[in-house]
Amino acid sequence: MTSRVPPHPDRADITLQGVLEALVDPVRRSIVAQLHLATDPISCGHFDIPVARSTATHHFNVLREAGLIRQHYAGTSRMNTLRRDDIDELLPGLLDACARDHQAQTPA
Amino acid sequence: MTSRVPPHPDRADITLQGVLEALVDPVRRSIVAQLHLATDPISCGHFDIPVARSTATHHFNVLREAGLIRQHYAGTSRMNTLRRDDIDELLPGLLDACARDHQAQTPA
């Protein structure tokens, strides 16, 4: 099933520019925050985001290509995990900041 | 001379969204990195940035309005300092990440 896994950048190819471009979008920041606050992988269909499925797919692609998330298949579901170590190496504090911001904007 | 000092947002009005929008631009990130690597305030005319003066003024305004820099006058020079404490509270690690990225891209 390896061929179904989309390409991911190597650690050395993750740039601050790419990460900032990805996270300047609030929907993408929300996806990252939800992953950071979760303990398990989340399938593309199970995020709480206010966009259509096709738009969501675009956002997941941007996040994957920027090096923020890894995607793999579990059956027919495309699962998402954070590349925590890679992000922390580039910008420690970023994931916590996204999560704090997300929680402050999400009604309890 | 207080009236010549442009307005700055309060700490509570600095948002992650605004900071990311400001720093997604490489020239603005370079300004922030140069300030982070410097010990003293830097006047608007003394940054190493590849843009015309009028464009630079726009970038300084964006950074000030996002809460990343403070500006004050020294004679006729508009001086810039980082709002380190405010930035560190919002996203610790950000300034160092910008500086590392800047240094990696700047020929020695």
Any overview of this molecule?
2 copies of one chain form a homodimer. With 108 residues, chain A is α+β, with helices and mostly antiparallel strands. Chain A has one domain (11-105): Arc Repressor Mutant, subunit A. Helix content of chain A is 49%, strand content 13%. The first copy, chain A, has helices at residues 16-23, 26-37, 53-66, 84-90, 94-105, and strands at residues 42-43, 69-74, 77-82. In chain A, strands 1-3-2 form a 3-stranded antiparallel β-sheet. In chain A, a hairpin with a 2-residue loop joins strand 2 and strand 3 (77-82). Chain A is globular and about 35 Å long. The mean pLDDT of chain A is 94. At the A-B interface, helix 1 and helix 5 of A face helix 1 and helix 5 of B.
What brief labels describe this structure?
DNA-binding (chains A, B), DNA-binding transcriptional ArsR family regulator (chains A, B), 108 residues, homodimer, three-stranded antiparallel beta sheet, 5 helices, HTH_ArsR_DNA-bd_dom (chains A, B), alpha+beta, WH-like_DNA-bd_sf (chains A, B), DNA-binding transcription factor activity (chains A, B)
